[in-house]
Amino acid sequence: MADGGYRGYIVSRPVRGTHFPQRVQNLVVRDYAQRRKLPFRLSVTEYAMPGCTMMFAGALAELEGEGALDGIILFSLFVLPAQRERRLAAYERVLTRGKTMHAALENLVLARPADIRAWEDIIGVDAVLPAAPFGGRYEKTATPLGADPAALSSFTLK
Amino acid sequence: MSFFRDDEERLSAAFLEHGYVIAPAQDRAALDRIREFVVERAAAFLELPPPADPAAFLEGIGAHTGDAERLNQLRLAIIDGLTGAPWFREAYFACGRSVVEALVGNELAMQRGIGFSIQLPDDTSSVLPLHSDAWSEDSPFEVVLWIPLVDVAATQSMFILSRERDLAWRERMHEFGGQTVEELFAALAPEVEYLTVPYGHVLCFTHTLMHGNRVNAEAHARWSLNVRFKGLFTPYSDKKLGDFFDPITLRPASRIGIDYRLPAGFDG
Prior knowledge:
The complex is a heterodimer of chains A (about 160) and B (about 270).
Chain A: E1 6-11, H1 22-35, E2 40-46, H2 54-61, E3 71-74, H3 84-96, E4 100-103, E5 108-110, H4 114-128, H5 149-155
Parallel strand pairs in A: 1-2, 1-3, 3-4
Antiparallel strand pairs in A: 4-5
Chain B: H1 6-18, E1 20-24, H2 28-45, H3 54-59, H4 62-65, H5 68-84, H6 88-103, E2 108-111, E3 115-119, E4 128-131, E5 142-148, E6 159-160, H7 163-172, H8 181-188, E7 193-194, E8 201-205, E9 211-213, E10 222-231, E11 245-247, H9 252-259
Antiparallel strand pairs in B: 1-8, 2-10, 2-11, 3-10, 4-9, 5-8, 5-10, 6-7, 6-9
């Protein structure tokens, strides 16, 4: 029984290609709750299997009934289900019950239908960035064109 | 043949040569609104009556701020006020929209927070050492839209190396590997340019160039804001879309493209 408050939601999978230890994810979620003065409820941790959203479904179910949660604090926007239809269904479920969903790492709140577009724009653009120049990521461990300085200088705009 | 308008060509040429452009604020009313808001916040924080002369009030703020801690509290109060004002980001973008669009593109990501600086005369605690943002968490595809709330020049302003000199010093930088940034600055100091930016103008620069500020040796305080912009679909570094940037001008064709799925279910 949740008895109000905000359930943390962290994952056992990489987020945008980076594996964040669960302890670090929890720190981010707890800090977010503290800063926003949101009563925090212990995080649930999604299973590692790709595409699995069972724990998320459980957190959504806790938004209903007696002693229901006030909302969910995601570690990141990018722990939401990969399928857009499932995300939209989750937003609807949160909003129709007058609850809120938070993305701690991005410091974003979903509190009204108009917020959906902002969340989906970020997720949508991020999804196509791998098809953008340099795969959408400027790596600093090496030059983007590889280790050959000559290649880089020929690329530099004059 | 060029597909750019003449004004875009001029801006682009200046930006490629110098690494920055200074232009009149496109929406002066928006800039005045921002300054008015900052002045009101500052006066309220310091429990002073609204000043008759906003520029003089800001320039002479050192007479009212007291110690460094109080000054920092003032900074934070103004940042809180600006970030909490729902109109602020749109107004800020309006100040330099055409410049940013000409130099970066018209499908943009904008920094979600703001950089804000008050630099009192002779204040050694507000020095921003020589650096390039590309050396840390930023992508070289970003630009900074830097807007002063008072007239700034010389050490009251920021300094920057030209593109040509920045390239030359980057190639020599390894020679300073065992030394400090201050020693590097001392070596290249004769070549930096302190930018003169009158109130009512915006500065747009590439933060890939070495830049920073020194102790303000002028008579007046510097007040300035800075926000980064980048092409929405250009490479990000550690300041990512979502946590640091958000899309502000995602175009309809991109929305359709992002959502589009080819017909599926064929089994041939």
